[in-house]
Structure formats: structure tokens, C-alpha cells
Amino acid sequence: MPSSIIPQSGSPALPQFDIHERFPLDTVCEAAKILTGASDPVAAMPSVLNVLSSFMGLRMGALALLDDSGSGAIGNGAGGNGVNPFAIAATTQGAASAPATSRAMPVGATRAVFRTGVALVSCDVASELGPDALPPQAPHDRFAFIAVPIREQVHSPYVIGVLGAWRDLTEDLYPNIDEDQRVMTMVAAILEQSVKFRRLVARDRERLMEEARLALRQANEKAAAEAPLPAEPIKGIIGDSPAIKSVIAQIRKVATTRTPVLLRGESGTGKELFARAVHALSDRKDKPFVKVNCAALSQTLLESELFGHEKGSFTGAMAQKKGRFELADKGTLFLDEIGEIGPEFQVKLLRILQEGEFERVGGTRTLRVDVRLVTATNRDLEAAVARGAFRADLYFRICVVPILLPPLRDRLEDVPQLAQAFLDRFNQQNGMNKRMTPQAVSALARCQFPGNVRELENCISRVAALSSGTEIGAQELACHQGTCLSAELWRMQTGEQSPIGGLAAAVRTPLPVIDSGTGQRPPAAACPAGFGEPPVAD
């Protein structure tokens, strides 16, 4: 199809009058104002097409754009298949999304402009483009059609749209088709620049948004990397109560230092377990963890056990023996029941804590060690210092960071977890598969457990061993059978009857009471009816 079609010499004569006055410059100015001020130039095209109608007398203008479902912009010489899918994006009637077959623009002529990138002008649409190229409901067949390309960029071969309009030749005395083409070409150029500018703005906005998303993602990743990882559970320590969480938090803080730690609490609160936790969370975790129960050895044996001895240093010393301090070198030494050592040994212990050196029993060579010391006691060391039974200088050496371990009755919310852990251990050791009913767990959670965690373990092992089936009910617990030692201990401590009952009267035998200061049982008169202050078991 030719790119420019001019009237033939045999064309009918035009009317000898002109009913339209043209304003090409005003048309371009108005189109520029509309397009440059619009956030969406394509959506503003109906107004531009109406300006072409009002100022230039062009009829039924339309804008065709490549269909999004097509293969993209097709330029001069590109594509090669002659098929340019497009859709009508705007008409003088308003914004539209009509198919190419809607007759808003001649399909063949529009495809030719898409394919070639060259403006098309037909001064006799009916004869040159065919009757189907006439505008819808045309009253006659004397129309001219002008179509100009809209490019992706200035001088770009890629055509993204076509701007077209008809001129009614019966209304104009001197139709200047070339002027119509120039005006439409200028309007198309303005539209090109507006679309390009909006694309650049959208591209920059998208780039800024992508940079903001990237910065936010990097900030989140950095925050996640710098945030402390969720603390892993400490092996053997079970419970989520506030009391036990507070202790664990202290353990985690102090474990990374070399500061001596004194674990305080009643018997059965798990002092050795927490001492191992201090070691496991420290930088000495790959070195030895050595423990000594000071209450289980006499003062003579305790000195030999801690410092070692040379061969022949005393009767029975058949060979040299390394002490616990030597064995714990570069690691952790746990001295349990530190309050039980006598005054003479306290002096020797103080020296190694101050100087880091000692001699084996019967030896003369001074040895040096690097040991992290963790101690534990259930005694009132402050009272012992006040009485002169415990050296103040040694007290301040070992009690740098005191950590009080809560009794089980102060963290009863941990009882269900602990009970299940003890039952799991019993099942594994005995090849059984027993379980507790919710009622049994609830009953356990109401106990006071004067004997602490060790007592709970004893209770679980006893009921698991005596239960007849795989399911342990509340009625099988000792507290529901009047044989609960916890209830009796609670009565002895408080003078009140436990809400869960107690031992039968026939088996209520008072337990010995140990004075926390002297370590001796007080006279009977001090404990009427055999009941006194709470026992302090070792």
C-alpha cells in the first residue's frame, strides 16, 4: 500500500465554500498543554482528539497501540510476518480498549503504518482503501484518512502506536491534507515525548522503590544477623518458670567470664547441674569438669583429694597421685558443700585461690594451675562468718557472683515438664511405656515438694514402679493414699496440714533436724514433739 495517496485528476470537484477555520498552531499548543500536564498521556488522548476536531475539523480520531499480548513493538523491517496485533486505546468518544476490528481505524492502513513506520495519507478512502475503511455510519464516501506513527523514541524504528483521523471532504472548500498530516505528526511527537517522560519517571520511581526495598531487606538481614540467636536449651535444665529463667539468664552471663560462682539453695535444687551449665557455656567447655563433694570426705582425705600426694607421704600412699586441682587445670573445678570444710583447710584453700599455686601432700615442689572455681552450699555462710566458723577472706573469694537456685515449690509450673522427663527416663531404663493422666499431673503440681526436684524424681519413680497398668492415674499417687512424705515434710516445716494430706498416723516418725550453724541435732526441748525448723539436708 502506498505511503501517500493524493487525489487523482478525475476526482469530483469540491464545494466552493469553507465552513471550517483552521488553527494549526493553537491545536499543537493545546495538545502540548494537555499531554504534558497529564499523569497518563494515553488516558488524556480523547481530549487531544477533540482538540483536533474543534481546531482542525478532523473527524472521529483514534489512537491505536500495540496489544500487550503481542510480541512487542515492531519497527521498520522488523517482525516480517505482516501481523501487528493492536488495540484501540482512545477515540474522540473517550478512553477505550476496543479490538482492531471495531472500525475506529482502518485495520489494513493501521497495520501498514505499524509495519513500515511511515505516515499514510489517503484522499479517497472508499476507492483506495475500500468501503470497509470508511468511518462507521458514514453518510457518504468522500472522506480522507491520515495516519501517523508514534515511535518508542524519537528517530527510533520501533512503532508503538498510530494516531489516525478522518476529514470530511464535503465540508471543506480547500482541504489541506498536508497541513493535517504535519499537525498530527507534531501531536504524535508530543505524545512520544510525554510517554517517554512518564516512562522515565516510572522507571526512576521503580528504581527508587527497588533500592528502598533492597535497603530495607539489607537492613532486616543485618538486624537479623546482629540480633542474638535464640538461646539453645541448657542440657538437663528443664523449666520455663520465671524463677528458673532468671537463674538461666544469670548463668549465661557469668559463664563467659572467669569470675568465681557460688551456687546457693536447698538440697535437691540441682546445684551440680547448674555448675555443669556454667562449665558448658564457658570457653573451657572442652577442658575437664571435675567435682568434689566436700561433705563426703574428712579434712585429711579432702586435702589429699584436692591437692594430691607424693609416694610415701602417708601410710597407704603407694604412688604419686594428682589432686583434683591438677586434673581440672584449664577447666572447671566444682566444690559442692563448700560450707562443710574446717578452718585449717580453709587456709590452704584460700592460698590456691589467691596465688593459683599449691604443693602436693608430702611434696616440696610448688605447682601452678589455671582453674575456674564453682562452689555450692545449702548453708548460711554469712551466719558462719559472723560466728567465726568460716573465714571472711575465703567467703569473699568464692562468693563473687552468688546465684540462688529456687526450690521446686517456688516454680510449681515446671512440675509437669520435670515429671514427664523423669517418667521418660524411667521408661527408658526399664523398657516400659507408662504415661500419666492429666489428673495425675495436676495433683503433682499442687504438691509443695520440701525435698525439691530430687523428691519429685523419687515420687515419679515410686508410682511408676508400683502402678499396675501403662496409665498412671491420680489415685495411684502416694498423696492420694496417705503415704506422701512431701506432705509430712511440709507439715514439719510450716506446722500446717498440707492440702494434699499426709502420712498415716502410724508411720509419722519425726525426721532428725540439723542445725544450719553447728551441723548438730538440737536438744529435744528445742523441738517440741520432735518438730522444729525445716531440715537442711546435705
UniProtKB/TrEMBL annotation:
InterPro entries: AAA+_ATPase, AAA_lid_NorR, GAF, GAF-like_dom_sf, P-loop_NTPase, Sigma_54_int, Sigma_54_int_dom_ATP-bd_1, Sigma_54_int_dom_ATP-bd_2
SUPFAM superfamilies named in the record: GAF domain-like, P-loop containing nucleoside triphosphate hydrolases
Keywords from the named record: Activator, ATP-binding, DNA-binding, Nucleotide-binding, Transcription, Transcription regulation
Source taxon at top rank: Bacteria
PROSITE patterns (alphabetical): SIGMA54_INTERACT_1, SIGMA54_INTERACT_2, SIGMA54_INTERACT_3, SIGMA54_INTERACT_4
Domain Sigma-54 factor interaction: 237-465
Region (Disordered) location: 516-538
Protein name (Swiss-Prot/TrEMBL): Sigma 54-interacting transcriptional regulator
Taxon lineage: Bacteria, Pseudomonadati, Pseudomonadota, Alphaproteobacteria, Rhodobacterales
